[in-house]
Design goal:
alpha/beta; Transferase, Pyrimidine Nucleoside Phosphorylase, Chain A, domain 3; globular; seven-stranded mixed beta sheet; 15 helices; Anthranilate phosphoribosyltransferase; metal-binding; Pyrimidine Nucleoside Phosphorylase, Chain A, domain 2
């Protein structure tokens, strides 16, 4: 006879975590469901998040939290097979420009269907939403409009604040705690379109295998979770990068250096960005062929990985070469113009 786990109260969950015990996947899902419904106090949310951080979040706990958050989100109804997302957890403390945003546009221009999920800046100076807005993209599409955009041009952007309204219940405690918690990991795990492929950057190298396994638990078919030795939640061109790759139902981890991708090594200081206006200018300069240094190379590394994970290249190095061709041919710039025009037109369609 199967015994069903009873839903824990927030107090019971907190007691369990403080005692050093881990929550089951079902228990974690139940706790997050309480939070998403607005039935937990700020003190309880902060306590659970802190206790999880101190104990160390497990695969089941992260998966359960993500499943509950997904169930409370506004969904984009579209064909999810072969659909890619690319984003990072943030939290590196390094104010780089929006590499995943540029990479998503290039991958789309290479023929990969992209459902980019992102937010305004949390820890950096400019999040993907801020920079896309500065580029002229309408970031406030509804779920139906985002689906139309994706079907029309092969890429859409989903502004996290519009798709995860229930997360507002945790906003106050997160802000007051001011430290990284499980909530920092959840955004990249809760794509509203159900993308089944992903390039996900994380600040903590110790968790790449765990997060890759979580992605598999959430139904993804192929993914790469990356964390560089110099602290980036991206594939770095300044140091080696640890990669945990999900494919064929398993996860394998390896280390990749810039030269493995045919790229030069650059100082970390050379990829620093600024506010949304500065980052928008950097992306335009890359797409318009006016940038051949570190900015271009780190985008090639990450866009190449997107193209590979998206199934449009047979290897990472082939993906990097394809990304360079996409930029040099003007296709990346054309895709950005198309995204600006289409999202602008859709803003007038109910």
């Amino acid at each position: 006879m199967t015994v069903m786990n009873e839903t824990l109260t927030m107090q019971q969950a907190l007691n369990k975590l403080i005692g050093g015990e881990s929550l089951s996947r079902e228990e974690a899902r139940g706790v997050m469901d309480i939070i998403m419904k607005g039935e937990a106090t700020g003190a309880q949310i902060g306590g659970v998040a802190t206790a999880l951080r101190m104990k160390g979040e497990t695969r089941d706990e992260i998966t359960g939290f993500a499943e509950a958050m997904r169930s409370h989100s506004n969904q984009v109804m579209t064909e999810s097979s072969g659909l890619l997302d690319t984003c990072g957890t943030g939290g590196s403390g390094i104010h780089k420009f929006n590499i995943s945003t540029a990479s998503a546009i290039i991958a789309s221009a290479a023929g990969v269907r992209v459902a980019k999920h992102g937010n305004r800046a949390m820890s950096g100076k400019s999040g993907s939403a801020d920079t896309l807005e500065a580029l002229g993209v309408n970031i406030s599409l509804t779920a139906e409009q985002a689906s139309r955009c994706l079907d029309a041009i092969g890429i859409c952007f989903m502004f996290a604040q519009l798709y995860h309204p229930s997360l507002k219940h945790a906003a106050g405690p997160r802000r007051e705690l001011g430290v990284r918690t499980i909530f920092n990991m959840l955004g990249p795990l809760t794509n509203p379109a159900g993308a089944d492929r992903q390039l996900l950057g994380i600040y903590d190298r110790a968790k790449t295998e765990t997060i890759a396994s979580v992605l598999g638990d959430l139904g993804l078919k192929r993914a790469m979770v990356v964390s560089s030795h110099d602290g980036l939640d991206e594939i770095s061109i300044s140091s080696p990068t640890q990669i945990s790759e999900l494919s064929d139902g398993g996860v394998h981890t390896y280390t990749l250096a810039p030269e493995d991708l045919g790229l030069r090594t650059h100082a970390l200081s050379e990829i620093i960005g600024g506010d949304s206006a500065v980052n928008a200018r950097i992306i335009r300069s890359i797409f318009e062929g006016r940038e051949f240094g570190a900015y271009r190379d780190i985008v090639l590394a990450n866009a190449g990985a997107c193209i590979f994970v998206g199934g449009a290249a047979a290897s990472l190095r082939e993906g990097v070469e394809a990304a360079g061709t996409i930029i040099d041919s003007g296709l990346a710039a054309a895709k950005l113009r198309q995204l600006i025009e289409t999202t602008g037109e859709l803003s007038h369609v109910s």
